[in-house]
């Protein structure tokens, strides 16, 4: 029996298909490549063959496992300042497909706009300009910002779009919301026509590329990792924080829910993946130091917001930091004389209701972290 697994080799920009054999062997084949890192793949709902990738080179690529080649659809770009004729590449961090309408997909990256495209309007030829979004989303106060970018996107089963910004907050946009102006023409004056989005706060998203997601049978909750090593869970409607769990000794980056049962997988700087499942019916209270954790995150975010950086500088610093993190992880893998691979590979089953979110003091920060202040 053979299992197939798609993997973005993010530091190399390679998209590989892995064949997992029963005897433990893994064979990989490179399907395509981006110039720069790749952080997210989007599999077409209901399809076992088609998926898309987005990369720091700004390109969207289409893959069909029944063929041997990738198709570059277009390169995402944005105008520079008031010069509408001068375009700058938008390095991409995330891509998601609307499960209610698989023709629509959203992308986000090194500027403030989440862009939605209709696959039927793409020219399937990167030499021709298909960079024409059918909708754009951005909080009104971030229009024209040069020091924010998008790290994570998620579509709900109702067509809502969740957007997480680097060292900013998380915003939920209804399907009928939009910026009423394209990224190439938006100004602060256009913001008067923008509907307010739901806002989720308390976490910190500065050090890495963090995802964002929905959770629950009807997407009743919103999930995010944080630089403080916690997993934040809010109620979607009220944006009320209901759970705070320690998920990593350093940073929690990604989280994926099982499509049918209440199980959650999370990962961060540590080299293991943690599996979370509810173990009881009693809902525990938030930890006693929740206000201190959220205040520390808020202060760090506000202190950093005083520094203005261009998107290119931000992406460069993040690339350097991720290379440093990868080197740190590789060194840990080579320390066989200190910690065995079997011990490090041990899985964790941490119940939602049993996991105790302890203080940050129990998890000292990594001295190798790169901070901008």
Automatic annotation (TrEMBL):
Presence of the UniProt keyword Repeat in the record: yes
Q: Report the domain of life of the source organism.
A: Eukaryota
- Name the Gene3D superfamilies on file: YVTN repeat-like/Quinoprotein amine dehydrogenase (2.130.10.10)
Query: InterPro entries this protein is in?
Result: DCAF8, WD40/YVTN_repeat-like_dom_sf, WD40_repeat_dom_sf, WD40_rpt
Keywords of this entry: Repeat, WD repeat
Q: Which PANTHER family match?
A: TRANSDUCIN_WD40 REPEAT-LIKE SUPERFAMILY PROTEIN (PTHR15574:SF65), WD REPEAT DOMAIN-CONTAINING FAMILY (PTHR15574)
Q: What is this protein called?
A: DDB1-and CUL4-associated factor 8
Q: Provide the species name.
A: Glycine max
């Amino acid at each position: 029996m053979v299992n197939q697994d798609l993997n973005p080799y993010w530091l190399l920009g390679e998209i590989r298909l892995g064949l997992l054999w029963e005897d433990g062997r893994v064979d990989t084949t490179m399907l395509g490549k981006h110039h720069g890192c790749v952080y997210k793949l989007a599999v077409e709902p209901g399809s076992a063959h088609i998926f898309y990738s987005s990369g720091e080179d700004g390109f969207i690529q289409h893959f069909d496992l029944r063929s041997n080649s990738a198709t570059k659809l277009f390169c995402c770009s944005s105008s520079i300042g008031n010069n509408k004729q001068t375009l700058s590449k938008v390095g991409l961090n995330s891509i998601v497909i609307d499960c209610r309408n698989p023709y629509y997909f959203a992308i986000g990256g090194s500027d403030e706009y989440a862009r939605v495209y209709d696959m039927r309007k793409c020219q399937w030829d990167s030499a021709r300009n298909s960079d024409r979004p059918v909708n754009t989303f951005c909080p009104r106060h971030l229009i024209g910002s040069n020091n924010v970018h998008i790290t994570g996107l998620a579509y709900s089963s109702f067509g809502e779009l969740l957007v997480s910004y680097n060292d900013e907050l998380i915003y939920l946009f209804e399907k009928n919301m939009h910026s009423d102006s394209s990224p190439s023409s938006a100004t602060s004056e256009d913001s008067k026509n923008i509907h307010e989005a739901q806002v989720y706060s308390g976490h910190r998203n500065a050090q890495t590329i963090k995802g964002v997601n929905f959770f629950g049978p009807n997407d009743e909750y919103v999930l995010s990792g944080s630089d403080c090593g916690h997993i934040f869970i809010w109620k979607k409607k009220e944006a009320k924080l209901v759970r705070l769990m320690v998920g990593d000794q350093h940073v929690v980056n990604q989280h994926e829910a099982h499509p049918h049962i209440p199980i959650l997988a999370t990962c961060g700087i540590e080299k293991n993946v943690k599996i979370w499942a509810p173990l009881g019916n009693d809902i525990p209270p938030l930890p006693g130091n929740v206000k201190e954790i959220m205040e520390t995150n808020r202060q760090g975010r506000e202190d950093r917001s005083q520094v203005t950086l261009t998107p290119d500088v931000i992406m460069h610093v993040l690339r350097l930091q991720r290379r440093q993190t990868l080197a740190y992880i590789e060194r840990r893998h080579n320390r066989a004389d200190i910690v065995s691979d079997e011990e490090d590979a041990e899985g964790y089953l941490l119940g939602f209701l049993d996991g105790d979110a302890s203080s940050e003091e129990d998890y000292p920060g990594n001295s190798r972290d790169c901070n901008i202040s």
